[in-house]
Design a protein that fits this description.
alpha/beta, single chain
Length: 303
């Protein structure tokens, strides 16, 4: 069993489809120059969804649609790929969608690396368990489990390998420390959420995205939170009382037995994704080297 002194932090990174071209450049760099990156962390998975997926949720998908090419890249580097299918409004008739089922069938065979699905819907959970048993399941943060008792109940469910709590539970240390080792191993904290901690509309915001993924003609949810009109700002996320930084991970969460950390941002673009990777994975003295390798690669246009 891994001791608390040498635990590894596993990051679950955004943009499986949305930032595929970025990962084509970054993953070879991560493999070739592992010395540029902290030895106490690794990539646990990369998650996302292509455009026009009925089962999609959380954010609208986008980017590369050649799923075989994407899966091949993940398999080449031994990284688990996760489909983000966290639509909360699915009905029985949606379960027969051809595109989403084809993606699950493809990812069901991990060829040595097990892939997963991030889900919200109970209907979809049963559909996946029945038809694609090779995929592990992750309980989505779109459930907005803000009550710790709800979160504990979700951790107790054997269907889920990981559970992503609402970010406002990130600092509930008095309660988190009461979890068993097995429960702690299932927790996947959302580190860099920019949303206001006092937001009461989070569930409705996610439901709006679910409607959009189902093809309903509805505008984006009108965010009334302080600073919400500016969109995502990493600096704003870092100022949040719920933010989990690298010092927190090393000095608080890892010693306490938590190893899984989700980085949001699959719709923010490759330039912001690079900033997340520089902050969370890259040794400070090597950040310029990583920037140069990425910026100067002729295959990649970050801006």
């Amino acid at each position: 069993m891994t001791s608390k002194s040498n635990r590894i932090a596993y990051y679950h990174l955004p943009g499986l489809f949305e930032c595929h071209e970025f990962y084509r450049v970054f993953l070879p760099l991560f493999q070739k120059h592992r010395e540029y990156f902290y030895d106490w962390c690794d990539i646990g998975s990369i998650y996302g969804a292509p455009a026009e997926c009925l089962w999609g949720g959380g954010r609208l998908g986008g980017g590369e649609n050649d799923a075989r090419k994407i899966l091949s890249l993940m398999q080449k580097f031994g990284i688990s790929a996760r489909l983000t299918f966290s639509n909360s409004l699915l009905k029985e008739e949606h379960l027969s969608d051809g595109k989403c089922n084809a993606l699950c069938a493809l990812f069901n065979n991990g060829n040595g690396v097990q892939n997963g699905v991030i889900i919200h819907s109970e209907l979809l959970l049963e559909h996946l368990r029945k038809n694609y048993p090779g995929l592990y399941l992750v309980s989505s943060t779109t459930k907005v489990l803000t009550a710790f008792r709800q979160f504990q109940d979700e951790l107790a469910r054997g269907e889920f390998r990981y559970v992503v709590p609402d970010f406002r539970l990130n600092r509930s240390f008095d309660k988190l420390e009461t979890l068993s080792e097995a429960q702690k191993a299932k927790v996947e904290f959302l580190c860099n959420e920019c949303c206001w901690t006092g937001c009461a509309d989070r569930r409705r915001c996610y439901e709006n995205v679910s409607r959009q993924n189902l093809g309903e003609d509805c505008p984006d949810f009108p965010c009334s939170a302080p600073g919400g009109a500016k969109g995502y700002r990493f600096s704003q996320a870092m100022a949040s009382p719920a933010f989990i930084g690298i010092d927190d991970i090393r000095n608080i969460y890892l010693p306490e037995g938590f190893s899984h950390f989700k980085i949001e941002g699959r719709g923010l673009g490759s330039a912001i994704l690079l900033e997340f990777i520089l902050y969370y994975l890259t040794r400070q003295e090597c950040q310029l080297k990583v920037r140069e390798e990425i910026y100067l690669d002729s295959m990649l246009d970050l801006f």
